[in-house]
Amino acid sequence: MEPKKFLILGGDNRSIELANLLYEDGHNITISHIEGLNFRDCHIIIGPLPFTKDNKTINAPFHIEKIPIEIVFESMKKGQVLMAGGIADEQMKKAMKYGIELVDYFDREELQILNAIPTAEGAIKLAIEHSVITLHNSNVLILGFGRIGKILANMLHGIGANVYIAARKVKDIAWIKSLNYKAIGFNQLNENVGDMDFVFNTIPSLILTKERLEHFHRKTLIIDLASKPGGVDFMQAEELGIKVIHALGLPGKVAPLTAANIIKETIYNIIEERGI
Amino acid sequence: MEPKKFLILGGDNRSIELANLLYEDGHNITISHIEGLNFRDCHIIIGPLPFTKDNKTINAPFHIEKIPIEIVFESMKKGQVLMAGGIADEQMKKAMKYGIELVDYFDREELQILNAIPTAEGAIKLAIEHSVITLHNSNVLILGFGRIGKILANMLHGIGANVYIAARKVKDIAWIKSLNYKAIGFNQLNENVGDMDFVFNTIPSLILTKERLEHFHRKTLIIDLASKPGGVDFMQAEELGIKVIHALGLPGKVAPLTAANIIKETIYNIIEERGI
Amino acid sequence: MEPKKFLILGGDNRSIELANLLYEDGHNITISHIEGLNFRDCHIIIGPLPFTKDNKTINAPFHIEKIPIEIVFESMKKGQVLMAGGIADEQMKKAMKYGIELVDYFDREELQILNAIPTAEGAIKLAIEHSVITLHNSNVLILGFGRIGKILANMLHGIGANVYIAARKVKDIAWIKSLNYKAIGFNQLNENVGDMDFVFNTIPSLILTKERLEHFHRKTLIIDLASKPGGVDFMQAEELGIKVIHALGLPGKVAPLTAANIIKETIYNIIEERGI
Amino acid sequence: MEPKKFLILGGDNRSIELANLLYEDGHNITISHIEGLNFRDCHIIIGPLPFTKDNKTINAPFHIEKIPIEIVFESMKKGQVLMAGGIADEQMKKAMKYGIELVDYFDREELQILNAIPTAEGAIKLAIEHSVITLHNSNVLILGFGRIGKILANMLHGIGANVYIAARKVKDIAWIKSLNYKAIGFNQLNENVGDMDFVFNTIPSLILTKERLEHFHRKTLIIDLASKPGGVDFMQAEELGIKVIHALGLPGKVAPLTAANIIKETIYNIIEERGI
């Protein structure tokens, strides 16, 4: 790829890491909180993940003053592209009104897949940290067989856990068997959860209801990886004395440099596909 | 599942294995070439895989006389279901005219996934058999990352090969990396094939063209798993002295009992889904 | 095994876990700090790990008063066996003088092997915790291919790290290759350490000397698993800005219940071998 | 290593492969059946594996005339070394009388370890070939946890078999557990063999006796990898209708080039250690 001019707009440490990685690859980098909001000359503006936390200003903790989203949209010139992560529909529509090319890198499937790697490692770290037994030779149940479920299963199997996966689709059950895990249908969950040492939830809906939690053993550690509000009846779990950890945003916490690298690779893919 | 009455219609040894497995599960079984074409009383008729080889009669090598497809369609009664494998559109349309419920079990995704297991083992056996080196520590390239590609990669990695996978989609490249294989884009194939000891093709189109084969090392063994006509320019490969094995129908050859079991499980899924 | 009478003598939480596990298996248990130092009737006395911290009294943090080792030796009767962990030669000799049967369960090879499992998990947790990248796809070097080296390599490979192992013996190099890791001779260390993201030391002698550390990249995380004084020139590492974690006693910290279970199984093996 | 002069003495295709490999590494090679028994000038004479089949002459199938061992010993000069494989004590003693430096490369542990790789692959090929089910998801029992047992277990686990290992030593049981296989004591064999789909024997003594075979299921496939006379009561197995394959010399059959490479590496180790 030919060297490009990037403006790194807002963001936290991960944006700094990303700026370094782009610089190491030979690109020209301007960092907004150091060198100011200089939109001139740059080809691509890299916004933070998430894009905004208040729906009004850019997520830019290192800036002293707030940066209204409108200011950014107004400052952009023809031919410039703004890439950021986790952009709400509202902002997307606004960008369209301004005629701005706005791309959500967090929406890209390759990023979601690769982000599942630090997420899985973070979950493994939490499991080792918060239990009195080893993952090795323990019974581990993963709820859901999407990106995180698949990669977490692969790692837990590699550490030596007995991996059970709960899935709905006949097709997923076939995949689970073919990859040497034990498949559990959702209708068989209640009979099986009592034998589990660890349960990892990846399904973003209330899957561990009051009723299901009653079949759990108290010693079981639940790690909920589903985005807010998660998949566990937390109140009920607490009442039953079952430990639950709701782990969010693991890639940025557990492996910020790897996470920045994944964003960089995704940005490169977007650039290539769009011929920027 | 409640015991059902099955008529096993035509088929080869795999149909006999399937009849035994259904019988062991407590079902009532009639085998057509032994007990005649008795369509009365049975709930489900299990046809062979493939359903027909001449587009006119049932694939029934153990029968002395040919069984025209029309005879079967005419003999079937309301409420009966015919399940067979690899049914052409022509037969499907004909069945509709007769008002027959005809289901293709070979079309089901779970069967295709599970069939990839004996296919992968068969490919591994061929690779060990037809080379002077071990798979362990060899460079192995898989073309395509669909069902067979994924399961074959998992097994070859488990044996200790260095697994490279060629894929097109950015999403597949991410999956390949996340599962610890090395990803090769199709545009990088020519630079990389020369280092490969084994190449397994799973893509059903001419992927190893004359031009691409010229970048191969002569010692490389190619195993083509794609259905006819395969993905290799066989003439050119022969001219260049590159060994190619076009391996078809591996599940039935390598593991007929496992293959029968997979069909059985698929039939059970169909029964459950349709409430038969 | 027939139920036996155990006196749990001293020890920390792990001894309590062990008492529970023995109780669950149907044995009769007396716990010294609750029920007093009642040596009568018991078949086997289970001392702590380590046996003593001051070479004079039993390691017994839950006891209000110190328990001199001599008192224990004097109180024991013919036919009773004392099993404890990490017993120094001095105590062994003293026990012989008293005619006491004293067995060191920490000395047993099966315990050392099984203890390598929680040690490896603890090391993995530390590696995830103290780095900005994932273990997956990182370059990981293990110094030594003994118990911990072998089990740690297996787990790291399972998580998706690129595993390099430094070993001296030609025989170990062959094992390393046969298990799909990359072998590095000790004379090639200096050329290779610069590419490593993580280095795990398992060799209990000064292996990472001043001179060797100079070939390290500053970003490398060193986790030293060797017992005191460890295998790293810690001062030099600090000077060079290389992060080192000296991790000791991981089984008890990371997985006390698993650790207690390992001790229990070892005690059972001792009982069976000695026909107690 | 500096280029050396090798005389390749006798041997079959593997010796030719070895000659090629040494030549590719830059050494000077003379092949006895082509260029004659020219002992002059060479540093190292590489004899075949096995050294002799009749205890009198060199194993040299490509030579028209027999080569008596004595002639070789007499022809050798001071400073020359003869390396061959599988040398009987008788020949070793004779060599000493002649003052000849004779080294058995087949005796070396690294060769034995690395040879277990093609042996394991050959066993896997036979298992796939001679059964009607897949190795994946089958129950597989390995008798013995030495070199072949360890490497075969690793590969079978990688393919997705449920791996059981029978071992005697408490220490081996711990290793088996720590590597995620299921351990079976020899006293529990009879209760467990009935559930096995495949049994691989690696123990060179009569382990599958008449009595033990009676607990087998008839469908079980036994692959005996132990050197002659093997570890199975073959007559009894035949009587019971249990299929047994006694597989010998797999490295040379399954992967002659890999096998030659292993010999080459071993020869290099001998050269280095002896400072030749």
- Low-confidence spans of chain A: none
Label the structural class of chain A: alpha/beta
CATH arch. level architecture of the largest domain in chain A? 3-Layer(aba) Sandwich
User: What count of domains describes the coordinates of chain A?
Assistant: 2
Beta-strand percentage range of chain A: 15-25%
What global shape of chain A is seen? elongated
- Strand order of the biggest β-sheet of chain A: 8-7-6-9-10-11
* CATH level 1 name of the largest domain in chain A: Alpha Beta
Largest sheet composition of chain A: 6 strands, parallel
Strand-and-helix sequence of chain A, N→C?
EHEHEHEHEHEHEHEHEHEHEHH
What multimeric state do the chains show? homotetramer
Roughly how many Å apart are the termini of chain A? 10 Å
Question: What this model shows, in words?
Answer:
- 4 copies of one chain form a homotetramer.
- In chain A, 41% of the residues lie in helices and 17% in strands.
- With 276 residues, chain A is an alpha/beta fold.
- Chain A has 2 domains: 5-105, NAD(P)-binding Rossmann-like Domain (Rossmann fold); 111-252, NAD(P)-binding Rossmann-like Domain (Rossmann fold).
- In chain A, helix 5 (109-129) runs antiparallel to helix 12.
- The radius of gyration of chain A is 21 Å and the shape is elongated.
- Chains in contact: A-B, A-C, A-D, B-C, B-D, C-D.
- The B-D interface holds B 17, 117-118, 120-122, 124-125, 128-129, 131-137, 154-155, 157-160, 254-258 and D 17, 117-118, 120-122, 124-125, 128-129, 131-137, 154-155, 157-160, 254-258.
- Chains A, B, C, D: This is Dipicolinate synthase subunit A.
- Chains A, B, C, D: InterPro entries: D-isomer_DH_NAD-bd (IPR006140), DpaA_N (IPR031629), NAD(P)-bd_dom_sf (IPR036291).
- Chains A, B, C, D: It comes from Tepidimicrobium xylanilyticum.
